[in-house]
Every structure is written in structure tokens, then in C-alpha cells.
């Protein structure tokens, strides 16, 4: 079967939803179709690692309300439909349900979790990306007394470990890195480690997992130094890779993501991309980036949707220049980061009874902020970073007195 839509959006998550919403609002005369491999309407992923284990994952509650409105307005959501090829010359996407022609295309196929080969095919090994993953993982840990090892102490691993320990599970968090979150400086890495230890998570840092030993109710994860960690259930959070295999042969440039210009355009001028799968030059920083966080995916979706519509209507294309931002909730603490650091900045930390603030500055310019709690001051600093923030202004907003402690570089 072959169909046509003015704007076709491939992907079924936040970037796709925002792209559909923006295209629809910007150009109501265009018809818009979202093609998603998932069986469900687009839903929020961030709660999947944070929701209490005792509560069922309610898909209706997680479904983006905008999606229901868009459906009423005539936006079509083709679910269970996986794109498997792109013919840019013919302006056609091929899928398991037939081909769909487009006037403008937005690619928002995001990322998929990486599973180390040594764990492939083993029972009770889980990743966490989709609703189905979350349901399967919850069922696996529901049985009392099962030991859980989480590989990867980044945000998803850390969040799920925090969720588990809060509900009485014993959990070991394993990471090859001696300092998880070390890219934000040693002080942040140390605070992150303390947060987990203080809340009862066992940490095994600086040593990788090399395989498993035993089976059934007495399986262990073997670490590179020979130690064994109880691991009836293994949760893998070692990172993700762009879901772009379906674009092989399309002629698009793929280098750690879909390579786009400042306006998120790629290919022949009628193809745009948004979300975790995109690598683009962020004009705010003059640097090429691929970001795996919700807010950037949403921002990019909105811009790609408007630009896709404008490419058909002859309007001007917008640049995509967000200040990167993420949040993570672990052990009742909200960790937030905004800005962009290269690693060469000075880091100044400030603690009070509400939490901790880490400010990154390069000479007279403040470039980023990371906070454990400290929500009101973080909100002000994040907003100020959008307009360019001097170090003096940042200090003033943060209420920093002399002397500060230089934490690290
Ligand atoms: C458990 C979890 C917790 C998170 N928590 C946070 C958080 O607290 N803060 C934060 O900033 N970020 C968080 N994130 C990251 C955030 O969810 C992602 O950055 C965001 O989902 C990226 O959106 P996306 O639209 O680019 O792609 P994705 O969410 O990866 O979605 C891609 C979509 O495209 C579909 N697709 C893929 N290939 C095809 C194809 N060939 N044809 C059709 N459809 C296809 C997929 O099925 C999927 O629906 C979390 C992620 C997870 C998994």
C-alpha cells in the first residue's frame, strides 16, 4: 500500500510528538503523519526509571496529552509501523506496512540501548528504554529476595538503583568508571557517589563486568578483578546508540548520529531530524553536539516541525541553539544541569542546607551550572545562561560569598 502525507515524522516519542505539534500549529493546512514502530501512542520515558515499583506503569497517564489533541485535529499516528528504508529522490519512506510519500520528512527515531555481547541471550538481563522494558523489569524484580546488579552508574542506572533500594531491594551498582559523572568534575562525582552510598546502594566502581557465573537463583556477575556480585537480575544501563540502521543506503551522512546543519536539515533540503539521534552544530557554542536528554529532544522536535512546514511553505528556517539541560531524580534529590562545559573550566561549589551548587566558569564567563536540589537558584541561573551570563552575575544570583572553594577543573 502506498500513501502520502505533506509532513511525515518517523519516530514515536517526544521529538516526534513535538514535531507533529509544531508542524500542525505552524501550518494547519498541511496534513501530518507520525510513523512509529511502537504499538502505543507516544508516552513519557523519564518516569519509567523513577516510578515506585509497587505501582503499575499506567500507559494512559504517561501518554502525552498533546497526542490526543493532535489526533482529534486529524494528525495520523501510524503505530506498529517500522520504517525500513528511505528513498530521498522519490521522497518515500518504506515501512513494514507499505510506502509513504512525503513533502517534508522529520526523522526522530531516537536511540536504542546497548547490550554488551557477553550478556546477549542470557535470561533475566534487562535494558530500560520502552514501556515493555519497564513492565518486564518490574516483573523480574517483584519476586522477593532476588539480587539485582545494575551495570552502568549513569542517570538511568542510578535512577533505577535508587528506585530499587527505596523499596527494600539489595542492589549493586557497577561501573567501569572510577568516578561516574566525572565529566562534571571530581566534586560532582564524589557527591554522586556519596548520595548512593548514604542511601544504601552498594557501589563497585572502577572495574568492569566481564561475564556471569552460575545460573538460576544463584547467579553472579563477575568483575574484571575476579570478584563476584550477586546478580539474579541484571539491569544494563551502559548507554545508547542512535537508531539509524534503517537509513543505510539512503545517502544521509551518519556519523555518531544523523549529521544535520544548524536548522536540523539534512539530505536534499526536505529532510530534517530531531532528538537523541541528531548530531548538529549548535550555533550558540560553535560546536557539534549529540545530546541524549528529554528537553533538547523536545526543543529540536519543535524546530524540526516548524522547519519541515516552512520548507514546504517557503518560510525561513529557524536555527536550533538550545542551552543543554537535563534533570535526574535519585534518592529524593533532584540533580539538574544546564549549560555546556568543555572540561577546562574552573568549578566552584557552594553548599547549604537546601543542597549543593556547582558553578562552572571560564574567566569572566559562567558557562554551566549543576545542582543537587537548590531548585529556585538553579532556575534563575538556567534562565540567565540563555542570555549569556557573566561570572559576576552568576555569583550574585547564587549568593556566593568569599572565599569560594575551587573544587576541581
Ligand atoms: C528510563 C528513562 C529515563 C529517562 N529520564 C530522563 C530524565 O530524567 N531527564 C532527561 O533529560 N532525559 C531522560 N531520559 C532521556 C529521554 O527520555 C530521551 O532523551 C528522549 O526520550 C529522546 O527522545 P527521542 O524522541 O529523540 O527518541 P526516543 O525516545 O528514543 O524515541 C524514538 C522513537 O522512535 C521509534 N523508532 C525507532 N526506530 C524506528 C523506525 N525505524 N521506524 C519507526 N519508529 C522508530 C522508537 O520506537 C521510539 O518510539 C530518560 C530516558 C529513559 C529511557
Question: How would you summarize this macromolecular structure in one to three sentences?
Answer:
This protein is an alpha/beta fold.
CATH hierarchy: architecture of the largest domain: 3-Layer(bba) Sandwich
User: Structural class per helix/strand content?
Assistant: alpha/beta
The largest sheet, given as strand count, sense and whether it forms a barrel, is: 8 strands, mixed
CATH uppermost class of the largest domain: Alpha Beta
Helical content stands at 10-25%
**CATH third-level topology of the largest domain:** FAD/NAD(P)-binding domain
Number of strands: 28
Rg result: 22 Å
Number of helices: 9
Low-confidence stretches: none
Ligand names: flavin-adenine dinucleotide
Q: Calculate the mean pLDDT score and round it.
A: 94
Assembly state: single chain
Assign the CATH superfamily of the largest domain. FAD/NAD(P)-binding domain
Note the beta-strand portion: 25-35%
How many domains, in number, for the residues? 3
Intertermini distance: 58 Å
Approximate shape: globular
Amino acid at each position: 500500500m502506498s500513501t502520502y502525507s505533506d509532513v511525515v515524522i518517523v519516530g514515536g516519542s517526544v521529538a516526534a510528538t513535538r514535531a507533529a505539534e509544531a508542524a500542525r500549529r505552524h501550518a494547519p493546512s498541511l496534513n501530518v503523519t507520525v510513523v512509529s514502530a511502537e504499538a502505543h501512542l507516544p508516552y513519557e520515558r523519564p518516569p519509567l526509571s523513577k516510578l515506585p515499583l509497587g505501582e503499575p506503569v499506567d500507559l494512559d497517564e504517561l501518554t502525552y496529552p498533546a497526542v490526543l489533541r493532535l489526533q482529534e485535529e486529524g494528525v495520523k499516528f501510524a503505530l506498529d509501523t517500522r520504517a525500513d528504508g528511505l528513498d530521498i529522490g522519490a521522497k518515500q519512506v518504506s515501512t513494514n506496512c507499505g510506502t509513504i510519500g512525503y513533502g517534508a520528512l522529520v526523522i526522530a527515531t531516537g536511540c536504542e540501548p546497548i547490550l554488551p555481547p557477553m550478556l546477549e541471550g542470557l535470561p533475566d538481563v534487562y535494558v530500560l528504554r520502552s514501556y515493555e522494558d519497564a513492565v518486564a523489569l518490574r516483573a523480574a524484580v517483584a519476586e522477593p529476595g532476588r539480587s539485582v546488579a545494575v551495570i552502568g552508574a549513569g542517570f538511568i542506572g542510578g535512577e533505577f538503583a535508587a528506585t530499587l533500594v527505596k523499596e527494600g531491594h539489595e542492589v549493586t551498582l557497577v561501573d567501569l568508571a572510577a568516578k561516574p559523572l566525572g565529566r562534571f568534575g571530581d566534586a560532582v562525582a564524589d557527591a554522586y557517589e556519596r548520595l548512593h552510598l548514604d542511601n544504601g546502594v552498594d557501589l563497585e566502581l572502577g572495574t568492569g563486568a566481564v561475564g556471569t557465573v552460575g545460573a538460576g537463583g544463584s547467579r553472579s556477575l563477575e568483575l574484571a578483578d575476579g570478584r563476584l556480585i550477586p546478580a539474579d537480575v541484571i539491569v544494563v544501563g551502559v548507554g545508547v546508540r542512535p537508531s539509524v540502521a534503517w537509513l543505510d543506503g539512503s545517502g544521509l551522512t551518519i556519523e555518531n548520529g544523523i549529521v544535520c546543519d544548524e536548522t536540523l536539515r539534512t539530505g536534499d533540503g526536505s529532510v530534517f531530524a530531531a532528538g537523541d539521534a541528531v548530531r548538529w552544530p549548535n550555533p550558540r557554542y560553535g560546536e557539534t553536539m549529540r545530546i541524549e536528554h528529554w528537553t533538547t529532544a523536545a526543543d529540536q522536535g519543535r524546530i524540526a516541525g516548524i522547519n519541515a512546514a516552512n520548507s514546504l511553505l517557503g518560510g525561513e528556517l529557524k536555527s536550533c541553539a538550545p542551552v543543554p539541560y537535563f534533570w535526574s531524580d535519585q534518592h529524593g534529590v533532584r540533580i539538574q544541569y544546564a549549560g555546556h562545559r568543555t572540561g577546562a573550566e574552573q568549578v566552584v561549589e557552594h553548599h547549604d542546607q537546601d543542597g549543593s551548587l556547582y558553578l562552572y566558569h571560564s574567566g569572566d564567563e559562567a558557562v554551566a551550572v549543576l545542582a543537587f536540589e537548590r531548585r529556585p537558584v538553579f532556575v534563575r541561573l538556567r534562565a540567565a545562561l540563555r542570555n549569556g551570563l557573566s561570572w559576576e552575575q552568576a555569583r550574585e544570583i547564587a549568593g556566593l560569598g568569599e572565599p569560594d572553594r575551587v573544587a576541581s577543573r
